[in-house]
Each structure stands twice: as C-alpha cells, then as structure tokens.
Amino acid sequence: MDSRLRANDKKLFTLAAKRNQMSTAKKEYKRITVKSLYEMKQNGEKISMLTAYDYSMAKIIDSAKVDVILVGDSASNVMAGHETTLPITLDQMIYHASSVIRAVNRALVVVDIPFGSYQSDPKEALRSAIRIMKESGAHAIKIEGGIEIKESAKRILNAGIPVMGHLGLTPQSIYKFGTYTVRAKEEQEAEKLMEDAKLLEKIGCFAIVLEKIPAKLAEKVAKSVRIPIIGIGAGGGVDGQVLVVHDLLGMTHEFNPRFLRRYMNLYEEMGSAISRYVNDVKSLDFPSEDEQY
221 with 190: CB under 8 angstroms? Predict the structure, then answer.
C-alpha cells in the first residue's frame, strides 16, 4: 500500500510540475500582430525588435524569431552613408520596406515615415502612411514626436493604420537638439515626455519607442501606460529592446554608444574573408580544379 501511495504521489507531483511548466511557458506565435505585443506586455514577456533594410538580412532576422522588424530611417546612415536620417526619401523607405516584407513570415514589420513626409499637415502624413502600407505591404508605421504630431497620428489611426510612437532622442530633430546626448534628464523635459507617452496611448498608438533617456524614467513610463514601451538606450525596465542590426553584428565599428552590446565583430571577420579571397585570386589559388566546370 505504501509503495502504491508513493507512486501515486510521484505521479501527482510530476503532473503538477508539467502543468506549472505549461502555465509559465512562453506563448508560441506563428505571426506577430499588434495584439501579440499587448499580450507579451501583460504576460511579462520582453519584446525583441531589430532593424532590417533588405531581403537577405530580414530573412535571417525573421528566422531567428525576432518579434518586430523596424525598417528604420536609420537606413539613411547605415545603408547610404549619410550623417543623419534626414536625407532618406519616402520612395527609398518604400523600396527598403518592400524588400523586407518579401522575406518575413512571422515578425511584425513597422516602417518609419521619413522626415519631410508628415510634418507639414495631417493630410500629408496620411498620404505618406497610405503609400507605405499600400506599396510595401508593411504592417504598421512609426512617427517621431509627441503632442506636436498628435493630429497627424490621429488622422493615420482613423484610417485604420497602426501607429508606433517615438519619444526621447528623436533623430529627425537632431538639428533642434544639436547633439545625440541623453534626453529628458531635466524635470521639465521628463514631465513632457511622460505627458506625450500618455497622449500617444490615449489617441491609439499601439507601442512607443523610447530612445536614450534615463532608465528610471523609462521604467516609470512603461508602468504608467498599458501599451508596450520599447527602449533603445532606455534601460531594462521597459517592455522590450530595439537595436540597429548592423550595430549588434559589429558592422559599424566606429559607432560605440554605451547602450550597444555587440554580439559579433563582422567588420573584421568580413574584411578578413574578403582579403583572403583577394589573395586567392591574385595567387591563382581560386578557382581550384574542384571549383570549375
């Protein structure tokens, strides 16, 4: 009898452990949607987000199960070599977004509306957003700013287009700031950022990127709104993280902000591989007999 009781106890313990494991396991998403991001925040699961600008990179990122792919106007820097994000055009953003969309099966794809394509009036903002959604197949758009872009964001949202906000260091305003230093360190600017975050939530934005602000402020914002807060240089108390994929992979060796963690040094590894190829060509080592028809 005792042995049977012990066996039953063991079975019950094993069953309880399995149930507990199932209840704490992450939900597997076949396709990430705006609703998925809300669920992740509610369940305490952090959201992963990376940039992509072309088919090949987007394919790799999506295969790695990154939740959100941002076709950022940072393409102006990393793909075209400009010093700021300002020069990239709406047509160029649509081109990059179209390439990314063709590669993606799982991630939510968000596209930046570039500088000069939404600032003049809400009608222009809506036209730009519609072009991005219609011509690229994107799932959502992102715009920078708070109360100053309220009407533009509302116009886009009323058309049924999901909008992600962006507060803190907003690169399209670099000449207003004059520098890429941390924002919202002073009380007045911090209060405005909090107000803007609540405003963006109120009008219907599904998430907000907070860039380069104090970690304590970012965490406070994340706890004050129901929508996901995704940080870049905003500490670990937010609901997710975003990085430029070229920075993460070590392809931009001259860019070394405090918030960046490099997972590879592709700049050196790729350079070494290409140098070996050049040497093999010059020395007649490539192609070999096995590499010819």
Answer: no
Cα distances (angstroms) measured from residue 277 to each of 110, 250, 271, 283:
37, 21, 10, 10
**Which residues form the catalytic set?**
211
Question: Nearest CA to 266 among 287, 284, 285, 251?
Answer: 251
Cα torsion 91, 94, 95, 101 to 10°: value is 180
Q: How far apart are CA 127 and CA 174, in angstroms?
A: 25
CATH number of the domain where residue 107 is located: 3.20.20.60
Is 144 annotated as ligand-binding? yes
Q: Is 198 annotated as a binding residue?
A: no
The domain total for the chain is 1
Query: What are 252-289's pLDDT values in tens digits?
Result: 988 888 999 999 999 999 999 999 999 999 999 999 99
SS3 239: coil
